[in-house]
Write a structure and sequence with these properties.
By secondary structure, the chain is an alpha/beta fold. The chain has one domain. The chain contains 9 helices and 22 strands. It starts with a helix and ends in a 14-residue tail after the last helix. 46% of the residues are buried.
Length: 446
C-alpha cells in the first residue's frame, strides 16, 4: 500500500470512533478533508510548495497513532522545567497532542476568557468552534490529514474588548516509550478590541522518534492585538510539520516569532491573510542548525485589503551538514492600494557542507504600493572578524560575537521582557554548543 492508501484505510478503520466523538459540522469537515486528501495525496518531489522538503517518507515510518489519549503516569515537574522560570504566565500543558488536565479541561480566566482543551470546546461550544474552524486554512494535504484525524489541542477564546493581562504559555511535550505520530489542532479566537499573548514551547522528553503534524488557526477581530511566540526545542529524531493560519480583520495587529533551537526536521508553514483595511503584521523567524538537521520556513502573506502593512524577517545560522530553506511569498490583490510589504531573508553558512535555499517572491496586482524583498546567503564578514581579532579577541569568541549580533535582530523583536532575556541566553548557549539537547530536561535525548 502506498502512503495515501495507508491513511485512507486508517481513517476507515477509525471512522466510527471519530464520528461518535464529533458533532455534525466536524463530521462533515473530517469527511471533506479525507476526500481532499485522497484526491490530492502527499506532495511529491516536484511539488513547488515542498520542493526543498520531501516529507512523504516520514509518514510511512511505522509510527504508532493514537486517537485517544494514552495513559501516561509521570510528574512533569520532576523531569521538565520551563526555559523561562521568571515568566509569569497562565500555563497549560499538552502531552502527545492531548490536553493534560482531564479534571479541568476548560478554564475561565478573568474577563470570561476561555482556555483549555480543544476537544472539550467542541463539546461545550460547538457553534463557536463551527464558526471559525477550517474557515481560513488552505488545501494543503497535511492540513487535510490533520483535519481528518485530530482529536484535541488548545482552544482560546477572548471576548470582545477583553485583555488577557498575563501571557498564556502552552507547553507542548512529547513523551513515549514507543515511536509516535501526533496530530493536534489549535483554535484561537480574538473578538474585536481584544488582546492576548501566547507563548508555545515544543519539547521532546524521551529519546524515541516522533512525528508531529499540527495545525493552528487564529482569528483576529477588528482592532484585536495578538502577540504569538513559538520556540521549537526537540531532539534530532523528531520531525515537526507545523501549519499556522492567521486571519486579520480591520485594524488588527499581529506579531509572530518562531525560534528553532533544535529539531531533526522542521517544516513551518505560516499563512497570514490581511482581510481588513489598516491591518498590520510582523513575522519573524530564526533557526540555528548543525549536524544533519533540516529547517524549512514557508511564509505566505496575502494583502487582500488596502492600507495594510506587513513585515517579514527570517534568519538562519547553519553549521556542519545541516540544511535550511526559506520560501516567502507576498500577494498584493488588485484592490489593495496603499500596501506596504517588506520581506527579508538572511543566512550565514559556517561550513562548506551546509546548504541554504532561499526563494523570496512578490506578486503584485495593485499600482500604488511600497514593496521590497531580498535574500542573502554568505559567510561571516572577514573584515569584521579581522577588526575584532586585531583588538585581542580570540577567533572563536570573535565568531561567536558576530553570530550573536546577527541573531540579535530577531531576539530584539521579542517584546515579553523575561522571554527576551531568556531567549538571548539560550541563543548564545546554542551558538557556543552548550545547548545540545532540550534545555532543563532530565532526559538526555542527545
Amino acid at each position: 500500500m502506498d502512503n495515501t492508501n495507508i491513511y485512507t484505510a486508517l481513517y476507515q478503520e477509525n471512522k466510527e470512533l471519530l464520528q461518535s466523538l464529533s458533532p455534525d459540522f466536524l463530521v462533515k469537515l473530517r469527511e471533506d478533508a479525507m476526500q481532499h486528501f485522497i484526491q490530492k495525496g502527499f506532495p511529491g518531489k516536484k511539488d513547488e510548495s515542498y520542493k526543498y522538503t520531501y516529507l512523504e517518507p516520514y509518514f510511512n515510518n511505522g509510527y504508532n497513532k493514537y486517537l485517544s489519549p494514552k495513559n501516561i503516569q509521570f510528574d512533569v515537574n520532576e523531569i521538565f522545567h520551563c526555559d523561562v522560570p521568571k515568566l509569569d504566565t497562565h500555563v497549560i500543558l499538552l502531552v502527545n497532542g492531548f490536553y493534560f488536565d482531564a479534571a479541568n479541561p476548560l478554564k475561565t480566566l478573568p474577563g470570561d476568557v476561555i482556555v483549555g482543551s480543544f476537544a472539550q470546546a467542541v463539546k461545550e461550544y460547538p457553534e463557536l468552534v463551527a464558526k471559525y474552524l477550517g474557515k481560513y486554512t488552505s488545501g494543503d494535504s497535511f492540513v487535510a490529514l490533520n483535519t481528518a484525524f485530530s482529536r484535541d489541542g488548545i482552544f482560546l477564546y477572548v471576548p470582545k474588548g477583553k485583555v488577557v493581562e498575563k501571557p498564556i504559555q502552552v507547553i507542548n511535550v512529547l513523551i513515549s516509550d514507543e515511536e509516535l505520530m501526533v496530530q493536534h489542532r489549535n483554535l484561537v479566537i480574538l473578538e474585536p478590541n481584544s488582546q492576548a499573548r501566547v507563548v508555545v514551547c515544543d519539547h521532546t522528553l524521551s529519546p524515541n522518534k516522533f512525528l508531529t503534524n499540527a495545525v493552528t488557526e487564529v482569528y483576529l477581530g477588528e482592532n484585536a492585538t495578538f502577540d504569538h511566540f513559538k520556540v521549537q526545542n526537540e531532539h534530532n529524531d523528531s520531525v515537526q510539520v507545523s501549519h499556522t493560519y492567521f486571519y486579520q480583520d480591520k485594524a488588527s495587529s499581529l506579531r509572530t516569532s518562531t525560534i528553532t533551537l533544535h529539531g531533526g526536521l522542521v517544516r513551518n508553514n505560516l499563512n497570514i491573510k490581511l482581510d481588513g483595511e489598516g491591518a498590520e503584521c510582523h513575522a519573524f523567524g530564526l533557526f540555528v542548525t548543525d549536524q544533519a538537521q533540516h529547517v524549512d520556513n514557508s511564509v505566505f502573506v496575502d494583502h487582500a485589503k488596502p492600507n495594510c502593512t506587513s513585515n517579514q524577517l527570517f534568519k538562519g545560522i547553519l553549521d556542519d551538514q545541516s540544511n535550511g530553506a526559506f520560501a516567502g511569498r507576498i500577494l498584493v490583490d488588485r484592490d489593495s492600494q496603499k500596501t506596504a510589504a517588506y520581506q527579508r531573508n538572511s543566512n550565514i553558512l559556517l561550513s562548506d557542507e551546509a546548504k541554504m535555499d532561499s526563494k523570496p517572491q512578490l506578486e503584485i496586482y495593485a499600482d500604488d504600493v511600497k514593496c521590497s524583498h531580498g535574500a542573502t546567503v554568505g559567510q561571516l564578514d572577514e573584515d569584521a572578524l579581522f577588526y575584532l581579532r586585531a583588538r585581542g579577541i580570540s577567533e572563536r569568541e570573535a565568531k561567536l560575537m558576530l553570530m550573536y549580533a546577527f541573531a540579535y535582530e530577531i531576539i530584539d523583536e521579542i517584546k515579553i521582557e523575561p522571554l527576551h532575556v531568556r531567549m538571548a541566553d539560550l541563543i548564545e548557549r546554542r551558538l557556543r554548543g552548550d545547548l545540545t539537547r532540550c534545555n532543563n530536561c532530565a532526559v538526555n535525548c542527545g
